[in-house]
Amino acid sequence: MLARITPTPLAGSVPAIASKSMAHRLIIAAALSSGTTHVVCNTTCADIDATVRCLTSLGARINVVDDGYEVHPVPKSIELGILKAFQGAKLDCGESGSTLRFMLPVACALGAQATFVGAQRLGERPLTPLTDELMAAGCTLSADGGFPLVTSGRLRPGRFVLPGTVSSQFISGLLLSFPLLPGDSEIEVHGRIESRPYINLTLQALKLFGVDIAIERMTAPNGIDDITRFRSSGNVYRTPGEVKVEGDWSNAAFWLCAGALGNEPVEVRGISLTSAQGDRNVLAALSRFGARTKRASEAAIVQPDNLHAFSMSAQDIPDLVPVISAVAACADGTTIIRDCARLRIKESDRLATTASELAALGAHVTIDHDSLVIYGQERLSGGEVDSHNDHRIAMMAAIAAIRCDGEVLIHGAEAVRKSYPAFFDHYRMLGGRVELTEE
Ligand SMILES: O=C(O)C1=C[C@@H](OP(=O)(O)O)[C@@H](O)[C@H](O)C1
Ligand SMILES: C=C(OP(=O)(O)O)C(=O)O
């Protein structure tokens, strides 16, 4: 799909969509718990659909209701071990890294014989050393890199060791599987943990379902590295009956950045100002860029002001990097965004595509090792952008268009379906001018 944007500032108010990250976690916990759970989730997207589809393949019954899902759990019996219902299940993760990395340990913990498949770049995104740890603990995986990925055997409880810098989704996935294991387990994470707020989201989801994880920090025997230990002790998932998926800060960020780049305030309604989502920090970042930010009840508002460069680390906020870079491209001075290595293993090589596609609109951006260096300017020229099938790159370009002099064409704009199918509707709701056509 081609999006043809006639540059214009955005203004007004949009409702937040449901948090994709929290939806994955709460629907998984619901499908693994003791009874039926009503998961209030006001929107969906391709990635959430993928998680629902995988759980259904494992035997959960998930009915779509007016305001979300009614989740009837996977029929399981820990005492019985491997259950017939799971054998031969096909788990199609689409393009969702979260779905694959969460459902793989879960399927292993259930003793499922399952075949995982996925699309586009998902087969290239790393699974090791998560797969090594699963294999060391009793599972057989056809883990030669890529799909189909076939699992069999049943995961044993025990000690798992993971690095903190590849993907926090490995840690979240194992944590989500622990309540299914017949015994206590722990994950020892060595070194710095990147994307740490996403682990906090997992802990929050587990807690809602009655699962407590103890956390301990210590120094490794070498006296230098940090070790973080996450320990579960025999808790099982217990449904609270109803849970609500909160608003999504990662996607709200696009509109809040639009507020910083435009002429008038932009508001996002229905987001928690005390959320555990790390991307809530978009507000703090925008105020450091010089934008005026306002917190209201369950809403955030951003107003433009003179923008100036502000350098930061992407360690805890990888998904904000593309749209924050669009703001930096129009802020006075040079912004450096450090710790972007993991961006190379997202839906696209997001470090490269953030730089190349902003440059296609006339921005001055370079890559220095794992950092983006953005030389700000008042306005951009406009031009043709390729989404590289990456939703956050397509949305970044649409927001950068606000400051472009000429038209912006976004090829592969359908990528927004991964997390935000209503993105261009909301763009228009805020006064944006976009024409969508088939390519
Ligand atoms: O757990 C999650 O919901 C996510 C974790 C992050 O990935 P990494 O931990 O791989 O950085 C983030 O980029 C992704 O969009 C969602
Ligand atoms: C990287 C993302 O998601 P996932 O890892 O779940 O594919 C994302 O939404 O930007």
Automatic annotation (TrEMBL):
Keywords from the named record: Amino-acid biosynthesis, Aromatic amino acid biosynthesis, Cytoplasm, Transferase
GO MF annotations in UniProt: 3-phosphoshikimate 1-carboxyvinyltransferase activity
Active site residues according to the UniProt entry: 319 (proton acceptor)
Origin: domain of life: Bacteria
Pathway participation: Metabolic intermediate biosynthesis; chorismate biosynthesis; chorismate from D-erythrose 4-phosphate and phosphoenolpyruvate: step 6/7
Pfam families reported in the protein's UniProt record: EPSP_synthase
Enzyme Commission designation: 2.5.1.19
Substrates-to-products reaction catalysed: 3-phosphoshikimate + phosphoenolpyruvate = 5-O-(1-carboxyvinyl)-3-phosphoshikimate + phosphate
Subcellular locations according to the entry: Cytoplasm
Ranges of residues in domain Enolpyruvate transferase: 7-425
Positions contributing to 3-phosphoshikimate binding: 20-21, 25, 167-169, 195, 319, 346
Coiled-coil region list: none
Positions annotated to bind phosphoenolpyruvate: 20, 97, 125, 169, 350, 392, 418
EC main group: transferase
Subunit structure, interactors included: Monomer.
Listed PANTHER family: AROM/DEHYDROQUINATE SYNTHASE, PENTAFUNCTIONAL AROM POLYPEPTIDE
Function (record text): Catalyzes the transfer of the enolpyruvyl moiety of phosphoenolpyruvate (PEP) to the 5-hydroxyl of shikimate-3-phosphate (S3P) to produce enolpyruvyl shikimate-3-phosphate and inorganic phosphate.
Family: Belongs to the EPSP synthase family.
Name the record gives this protein: 3-phosphoshikimate 1-carboxyvinyltransferase
Gene behind this protein: aroA
